[in-house]
Q: What sequence folds into this?
């Protein structure tokens, strides 16, 4: 299984001279073989590298990457929308981690959601807008359908009447394409990762 993974990635390197990943000698650009980002002076050294521990690690990484790319190609727009929403919601819960539930004002140890003031069904065009989404406890979100009256009262206190009216009166139409959803997912995952890293310092 290892050799086909390396073989189909082999190509002639047309860039500056590089070192063989196996023997470490410089290889002229016009004669180098390449597997991923690694260069080899000959097929024998490529095969030897593939059998080494380092080579096996490279192969496994390539297989994982190929599998991920294949799975990504199979995803529908709905899949990407769900994944982007998950990344965004995680960011909202982290952003509001020190705040109580937007609706009931309680601060407890139970489960919290990213609760939308205007739902994704009613206003999908602002489903990723930070003014419209805040940390909300599970009882308010699930059992009280968002506890929307109290949500609005506390939302005005938090972001102001003008912004709340903007949310309520915004009736644009928007359809998120797949590339935009992919980018949204990456952006919010990165924001969350960096924020947590900075917080831990």
A:
């Amino acid at each position: 299984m290892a050799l086909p993974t390396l073989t189909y990635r082999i190509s002639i390197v047309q860039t500056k001279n590089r070192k063989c990943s196996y023997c470490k000698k410089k290889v002229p650009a016009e004669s180098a073989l390449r597997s991923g980002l690694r260069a080899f002076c000959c097929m024998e050294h490529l095969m030897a590298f593939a059998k080494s521990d380092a080579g096996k690690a490279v192969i496994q990484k390539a297989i994982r990457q190929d599998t991920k790319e294949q799975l990504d190609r199979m995803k529908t727009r709905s899949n990407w929308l769900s994944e982007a929403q998950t990344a965004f919601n995680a960011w909202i819960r982290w952003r509001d981690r020190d705040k109580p539930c937007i609706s009931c004002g309680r601060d407890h140890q139970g489960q919290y959601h990213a609760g939308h003031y205007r739902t994704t069904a009613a206003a999908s065009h602002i489903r990723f807008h930070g003014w419209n989404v805040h940390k909300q406890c599970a009882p308010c979100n699930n059992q009280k359908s968002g506890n929307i009256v109290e949500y609005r009262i506390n939302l005005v206190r938090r972001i102001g009447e003008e912004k709340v009216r903007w949310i309520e009166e915004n009736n644009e139409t928007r359809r998120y394409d797949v590339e935009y959803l992919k980018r949204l997912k990456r952006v919010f995952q990165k924001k969350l990762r960096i924020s947590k890293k900075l917080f831990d310092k």
Q: What stands out?
A: The chain has two domains: 2-66, 77-173. The longest helix spans residues 178-200.
